[in-house]
Write a structure and sequence with these properties.
By secondary structure, the protein is of the alpha+beta class. It has two domains: 211 residues, no CATH class; 131 residues, Rieske Iron-sulfur Protein, CATH 2.102.10. Helix content is 13%, strand content 32%. The protein has a five-stranded antiparallel sheet with strand order 3-12-13-14-15, with no helix packed on it. It has a five-stranded mixed sheet with strand order 4-18-6-5-17. A hairpin with a 2-residue loop joins β10 and β11. It starts with a helix and ends in a 5-residue tail after the last strand.
Length: 423
Amino acid sequence: MTIPPPARGWLFATLAGLSLTVAACSSARDTANPDEVISQDRAAADLTDGSTSLTPGQVVQPIQVPGDSRQGTISALSDPAHPDLPAPLVDLADIRSGGPPPDGIAPLDAPVFEQAIEVDWLAADEAVIVVDIGGDARAYPIQVLTWHEIVNDTFGDVPVTVTYCPLCNSAIVFDRRIDGQTFDFGTSGQLINSSLVMYDRQTESLWSHFTGQAIVGELTGLQLEFLPTSTVSWDDFRASHPKGLVLSRDTGFSRPYGQNPYAGYDNPDGDPFLFDGEVDPRLRAQTRVVAVRGEDATVAIVQDWLLDQGVAEVDLDGRALVVLLEPGVASALEQPEIGEGRDVGATGVFVPEGGGHELTFSPSPNGIGFMDDQTGSVWSILGEAVEGPLRGEQLEAVEHLDTFWFAIGAFETEIEIVGRPAV
């Protein structure tokens, strides 16, 4: 297989630098000024009563729910073929080194946050991953996640793992608890189907980022719960959640945040890095799609088609869903600077019900947001009614992912395609 130029550069330059610096930057808090850090419980009232903002330079460090203690189990990270481990769910030959060692791409275990209205280092159309649990909305900028791929975080008493795999262009969020046990995740340095392979620090089992399933090790077969997330523009998040929290670049690690080590990778005619599988010929390998996974089937909506339409209605598992796309998000994988990529749009998938109505949508006449046909209310890409009779209503978000066609095809077999790419 020919390694594409951006991937070669990543392997032989960027990852080498990452591996060398991770040891020197082992503490995720060693660049913070303690006087500028406040815990989330102290900040909660200030950030929710609408009256108080953080002072410039002040950051919030949420109280984290730590993972359980390390268990004395056989490590699949170091010996995946050990005969005493359960039978793996994948062929071990399909798990390949991506270049760096375990945690060479350093996950963030003690994330700190800034308040949205205080952030001045993000461009309006830069992509951020949005997670909202119980009204606690946080944005994780792709310019930070590109260099760390995993954030172990906590929303109140809900421990989560936020993940981003640049090679398959997928942001996926999990509840990191299973049957009363809490896990912390790291980067294994390995890939399957060009997708991030995580490991848990409690048993050192290997997990697929794409499926949320333990595929090798003591925990083989266990499944993490997916949590809904959307990748939207910084401008959209800031407008919807001015007092929301934004993952800070104050990570304790020295990284060129804002630069893209995968420049040129977002190319429908490109070759996925370290992918030897068969690509479903219905679409080109790196065509962008919005994938919604059901119990028995998956729907993939072609993203550049949806960019023209704005709205698509799909049926999955007998449930009607609406898929929205709003222009204004730069591709994080195209240009050397993350904020300078072409417009690929922000997406959201929702149950179209609000205010006792079954709703249908179309792009708003002024091009900002979406209007329902039943009440004339205007809705944001994050599913909130911002104008009209239903103002303040929130649509139920559905777990989905923006990804490349080859990636969803590698992990799902029954896929319905909606739309076709532009010629």
